[in-house]
Amino acid sequence: MFNRREHPRPQFIREDFLSLDGQWDFAFDDQNEGLKNKWFHQFPESRQIEVPFTYETQLSGIDEQEQHSIVWYEKTFIVDDLDNRVLTFEGSDYYTKVWLNGELLGDHRGAYERFSFDLADYLVEGENRITVRIVDSLMNEQPRGKQTWKEETFGCWYVGTTGIWKSVWLEKAPFNGLRAVKMTPDFDNDCIILEPSVKNKALLPTDKNYFFEATVTFKGELVSYHRSLFVHEMSPIQMETRIKKDSNWGTQRWSPHEPNLYDVTFKLFDESNNEIDSVVSYFGMRKISIENGKVLLNNEQLYQRLILDQGYWPESGLTPPSIDALEKDLDLTVESGYNGLRKHQKIEDERFMYLCDTKGLLVWVEMPSTYIFNDLAMTNLTDEWRQIVEQHYNHPSVITWVPFNESWGVKGIVDLVKPQQFTESIYYLTKAIDANRPVITNDGWEHTISDILTLHDYEEFGAAFAERYADKEAIVENDVMFNRDWFAFAKGYGYKGQPIIISEYGGIAFENSTEENWGYGNQVKNEAAFLERFNRITHAIQDLEYINGFCYTQLTDVEQEINGLYTPDRQPKVTIAEIKATNERRFK
After folding, report:
1. Alpha carbon of residue 142 to chain centroid
2. pLDDT confidence of residue 3
3. Residues of the chain under the 70 pLDDT cut
């Protein structure tokens, strides 16, 4: 029986899979000689690395922070039959080429999204050899998020991440099996809409028929069943979600208070009724909408109590050291009185999303930024963002898309037409893929077109914050720089009644003796001073009736940024019960 929590892709499980995490051969290629010398045929003398941890981290077994632009990996595995396998990389930073037994499988450009290769053409019985070459750089055209583009860390930018940094695995999967099934909850009509697609459809015989089957259950009880001719890619299929048991005739909703999940099994058959493929998945029934300046969850007002979560660990960088470590961060979030998180400048492990789904935590998915505006940066961000939205679409915990943050990568957006148009294009691309979730186009300030107006303000005095935000119209009409530095909207854009959220505030740090270590505003001397400041500013936000929620900076300290509620090793810096009480003071 599959263990969903342990599977690298818990929302699309084929039971016959093999994790390739663990020891790989590893080599730096500082002279760029690997291709010329055909390392994919004969790997050079090498060292060992523990995948999926990058060489910059302790858990990799290497722990060297200097930048190397080209790295190589190699690993062998054994198969006892020639059934097709799919090799999947959950994340590899940045330009990846992959060989099997010396034959090129293909390449991929990007750092944060999943990509796969069919192995059928080059797989052999017995020992097989995977070779990987990855090129990374300090280029600002790459979506790099919080990875430094200098030789050293600085400000709120940290040690780089080079190479394989998420899980790698093999699974038995037919060449013409299911590629994905897009699942859209139709909450008001008690149904889930399925849109299946298959791999390599262009190579399927046109004179053959195929059939798609879906079975929906809830806690073991059959809810609905469907079987039909598979005619077109992404043809919508509607299935009921009401539970017909005893007196309970209704859809089991997903929310932070009730994170109910349905199980669903997808199967693909040929016209002789031979099973081609079988995949196990799940979904949650919930609705995100905006009405009269409020965000609604399942047609009820939602007040978002979020925390900024950057997902770094001292021993493993961006890669979580374990699934338990992922779960611990989520438990700390709940214990601190938050009902969700803004995953900042990072696309997290798929198992993290599954844990959020099961725990009922709301998630803002935010694209790691580029730091220059040109054609290459636009291409890189657009290609990667589209795949990220598609890959995270089915998770009920995801309630908001954030493609840009604080004008990073779109410098001059306040009055320059080209970056403004670029953010509009990404907004409409995202809405074309997902018409149901809000899109925040430039989180923090200088918004163009956006479904929510989000404001970043690190004002440390509650009274000053309350006074500044008492005049809502002055802020939304761009009469004032709401946080003394930035306007709410770019020129040519205006307020259209969107919900307003304070999506970064706080960032309180304790006094320390190291100049490089920092937080926002004046540092505090003790816990009493911390709690007083935290309470006053949070109360000021909560008392503004037009504000729909907040996001506190941040969950943990990260390298030189020491403004977390917890230390890097996840120890509380203040009495967490006090934080929870303040967060839940209103709109619990």
Report:
1. 17
2. 84
3. 1-2, 202-204, 245-248, 588
Cβ pair 580, 337 in contact under 8 A:
yes
- Tell me the torsion sign for CA atoms 90, 94, 95, 97: negative
Nearest to 78 by CA among 121, 130, 116, 13: 130
DSSP 400-421: EEE--BTTTTSTTTTT-HHHHH
Residues 6+ apart with CB under 8 A from 451: 290, 438, 439, 440, 498
Residue 377, amino acid: A
Rg (CA), the chain: 24
**Residue showing tokens 């005739």:** 249
CA 561, 566, 570: angle at the middle one, nearest 5?
A: 110
Let me know how many helices (H) and strands (E) the chain has, helices first.
Answer: 8, 31
pLDDT the model gives residue 436: 97
Q: What string of H, E and C letters represents the secondary structure of 514-562? A: CCCCECCCCCECCHHHHHHHHHHHHHHHHCCCCEEEEEEECCECECCEC
pLDDT at 529: 97
Q: Are 512 and 464 in contact (CB under 8 A)?
A: no
Nearest to 30 by CA among 76, 75, 64: 64
Per the CB < 8 A criterion, the answer to whether 523 and 536 are in contact is no
C-alpha–C-alpha distance, residues 388 and 369, integer Å: 13
Q: Which helix (H) or strand (E) holds 275?
A: strand 275-283
What angle separates helix 576-583 from helix 323-335, to the nearest 10 degrees? 60
- Give, in order, the Cα–Cα distances in Å from 571 to each of 50, 339, 534, 555: 26, 20, 18, 11
Within 8 A by CB and 6+ apart from 543, the residues are 466
Backbone dihedral angles phi then psi of residue 514, each to the nearest 5 degrees: -105, 125
Residue matched to tokens 């925040």: 440
Q: Beta strands 85-89 and 103-109: pairing type?
A: unpaired
Rounded CA gap, 42 and 252, in Å? 56
Helical ranges in 360-508 per DSSP H:
375-392, 417-433, 462-469, 472-476
> Residue 514: what pLDDT?
83
SS3 at position 430: helix
The total of other beta-carbon atoms located within 10 Å of residue 234's CB is 11
Question: Quick one: pLDDT at residue 203?
Answer: 66
Phi/psi-derived region of residue 401, left when phi > 0, alpha when psi is between -120 and 50, beta in every other case:
beta
- Report d(CA 6, CA 284) in Å as an integer: 20
| Threshold 0.85, pTM exceeds | yes
What is the predicted pLDDT for the residue at 535? 97
Residues in the chain: 588
Q: Are 502 and 482 in contact (CB under 8 A)?
A: no
CA dihedral sign, ordered 456, 405, 166, 563: negative
Tokens at residue 585, please? Answer: 């003071």
Enter the tokens of residue 180.
Answer: 């994905």
Q: CA dihedral defined by 381, 386, 391, 393, rounded to 10 degrees?
A: 120
Coil vs helix vs strand at 482? coil
pLDDT tens per residue, range 525-535: 999 999 999 99
Query: Are 406 and 455 a contacting pair, CB within 8 Å?
Result: no
